[in-house]
Amino acid sequence: MFESSSAAEAVYDLIAFREDKEYPLLSKRVADAIYLGIIHDTGVFKHSNTTRHTMEIAGALLECGVSSSKMIDGTFYHKTYTQNLILARVLLESELHLGGRVITGVVPREYFKIYNASKPDLEGIVDQLRITEGVEAAIFAYETEGDGTFKYSMRSNDIVDVSKIAVKFGGGGHVRAAGCTIEGSAEEGIRLLIDEIKEQL
What global pTM score does this model have? Predict the structure, then answer.
C-alpha cells in the first residue's frame, strides 16, 4: 500500500487492491466522489501531499469518465455574486502580519446578514488569501453563531505546518491546510495562531 494524500485516495487503494473482483471496480459516481476528495485535499494537486501515486490514481479516475475541468471549475472557481461580494469584503479588510509573511481575514456574524450569506459562501476565501505575494501562511476566521466563537481555516505555502497548530487548539487537517475552533474574539484567536506560526518561521 502507498502513503495516501487523502482519505479519498486511501478509499481508491482499498477498492483497487481488494481480492474480490466479481463486480466492477469503480462506477462513474464513485470515481467522481474519489476524485473530488483528492482534488480538495491536495489543493488541485498543488499541496506537498501530492505524490506520483496520487497522479496515477487521478489518471485512472479520468479513464472512468470523471470530468476534471468541470469538477475543478465547479468546486474551486465558479462563484455566485454573494460569494464575490463577501470575498471582496474580506480582501478589503484583510491584514498583514510578521512583515507580510502572514495574512488574516475575518467574517463576523453580521456579515452573514448583510450579504445574505451562508457557510458555503465562504469556500475558497482562505485560499485566495494564501496566494497573496510574499505570504507564507493565511488565517481566515468566521463567527459561528454570534456567541463569540470563531472557526479558523489556515493555509500555508512552503514552511509552516498548520496541522500541528490546529491540533494544539483541538482541530486538525493536513500540513498545508488545517482548521480549528477557538472561543473568544477573532483578534484573540488570530493572535494565538500567529504566535504559533511565528515559532515555525
Answer: 0.77
